[in-house]
Amino acid sequence: MNTLLNPLTNKKFLISFLDIKDPEHPYSLEELKVISEDAIDVDDSRGSVRVTFTPTVEHCSMATVIGLCLRVKLLRSLPSRYKVDIRVAPGSHATEAAVNKQLNDKERVAAALENPGLLDMVDECLSPSYE
Amino acid sequence: MELAKGLREIQKLEGHTDKVWSLAWNPVTGVAGIPLSFASCSGDKTVRIWEHNPSSSTSSWDCKAVLDETHTRTVRSCAWSPSGKFLATASFDATTAIWENVGGDYECVSTLEGHENEVKSVSWNPSGSLLATCGRDKTVWIWEVQPGNEFDCVAVLQGHTQDVKMVQWHPSRNLIFSCSYDNTVKIWADEGGDDDDWACVQTLGETNNGHSSTVWALSFNDGGDKMVTCSDDLTLKIWGTDNEKMQSTDDFVPWRHLCTLSGYHDRTIFSVHWSRDNIIASGAADDTIRFFVENDDKDGLVDGPSYKLLLKKEKAHDMDINSVQWSPGEDRILASAADDGTIKIWELTSAG
């Protein structure tokens, strides 16, 4: 079952992951230093993936949308058995605990993804970009 | 009580095309020759009715009905009326639908509207005359069943500061228990008087040994004097009330923390259910089902009851387990529902 590491160590996958667009800027999350390659922590034996991202500003109102984009990207890319945790980097957001809690409440995530407006925004951020 | 030793998977039920969020056994089945039956609900916006077929030799559980084209978003939870004649389904589409079982056909006879957004849980009171619903709008609504399948909202309970994950009537008293993303469990009572005058009479929070993160579910023991809650804080907590006092007065008798079960599940515990013969089953995002029983070691009674792990089933499903429910009837049958879209039927056996 080495298929776990492959999608993440695979360069192509990683690049596409970093290529997610910021909801408010015409730049990728990588360009904005919101997410970096070493912010993705994979524990193959436990089948878990942890992503830590750094919002551009402490009061970033888009933090939950960015987190949602990251989660959806992983949901669509990884085999379903992986457990995904997403959080903001410690100290990087004014309401860090609240953002983390919301991003990891799967019921809220499921409900958000049934909200057409929010889903459009996520799809826009994830759409193949401007190469 | 004969201790259970093993867990046997009886059948895996496939049919839902998305997460199965919840399931509910029809309370009048499994007795007097009526085959066991339950409802399941899913992110695929449908509800399925499953029934045991005792005469079949191979596939012993069948899907008897698919309730669709009513809810437009995830169906989050479902609950049977005590008579087993009505099924209530709560949906992210902000409505609660009431389905009537007419000879095995299910007809949507009423739609309860009022919540601002996602409805997350629904529960009938023991007599079937009242319904409670709760949702992301932080409220609990109480509905009175009227003749002609009419449902009147008689109270909107406000007090939780975040979305309310689950609502449950006490099995014998006129009390509603709700648990929330705000980490608390609230107990609501009708304060009496002519009008429906519901108020929060107790909050079980972190300051009184409660949970430190979202409380996802709760379940009562058969006697109604104990309750178990489960949480994103990875613990289960047992709560108790004074049964004698509860029997002798109409006044509210407070609940207190009895013990905390920690160090078992290592991801969010979404579901917990207390069986008639006092076995607590829990299902979690670690794909594991665990079973707990009260420790009969008398030394532990100084500090109140303690509970021990009876059995665990790792990799019970391929993904998060959202719901575990014991069946009515004599047998130790448990159903579990998961993100992998499947439901599994299990039997606790006394053989190894």
Helix-strand layout with pairing:
The complex is a heterodimer of chains A (131) and B (352).
Chain A: H1 5-9, H2 11-18, E1 40-43, E2 48-53, H3 63-77, E3 83-88, H4 96-103, H5 106-112, H6 116-126
Parallel strand pairs in A: 2-3
Antiparallel strand pairs in A: 1-2
Helix pairs in contact in A: 3-4, 3-6
Chain B: E1 6-13, E2 20-25, E3 37-42, E4 47-52, E5 61-67, E6 75-80, E7 86-91, E8 95-102, E9 105-113, E10 119-124, E11 130-135, E12 139-146, E13 150-158, E14 164-169, E15 175-180, E16 185-190, E17 198-204, E18 215-220, E19 226-231, E20 236-241, H1 243-248, E21 255-261, E22 269-274, E23 280-284, E24 289-294, E25 307-313, E26 321-326, E27 333-338, E28 343-349
Antiparallel strand pairs in B: 1-28, 2-3, 3-4, 4-5, 6-7, 7-8, 8-9, 10-11, 11-12, 12-13, 14-15, 15-16, 16-17, 18-19, 19-20, 20-21, 22-23, 23-24, 24-25, 26-27, 27-28
User: CATH architecture of chain A, please?
Assistant: 2-Layer Sandwich
Model regions low in confidence, pLDDT < 50 over at least 5 residues of chain A: 1-6
Number of domains of chain B: 1
CATH class of chain B: Mainly Beta
Overall geometry of chain B comes to globular
At the first level of CATH, the class of chain A is Alpha Beta
Q: At the fourth CATH level, what is the homologous superfamily of chain A? A: Fe-S cluster assembly (FSCA)
Binned, the helix content of chain A reads: 40-55%
CATH H level of chain B: which superfamily?
YVTN repeat-like/Quinoprotein amine dehydrogenase
Strand content of chain A: 5-15%
**Radius of gyration of chain A from CA coordinates:** 14 Å
Compute the number of structural domains of chain A: 1
Order the strands across the largest sheet of chain A as they lie in space: 1-2-3
The main pleated sheet of chain A reads as: 3 strands, mixed
Helix share bin of chain B: under 10%
Pfam families (chain A): FeS_assembly_P
Domain MIP18 family-like (chain A): 20-84
GO biological process, one term (chain A): chromosome segregation
Protein name (chain A): MIP18 family-like domain-containing protein
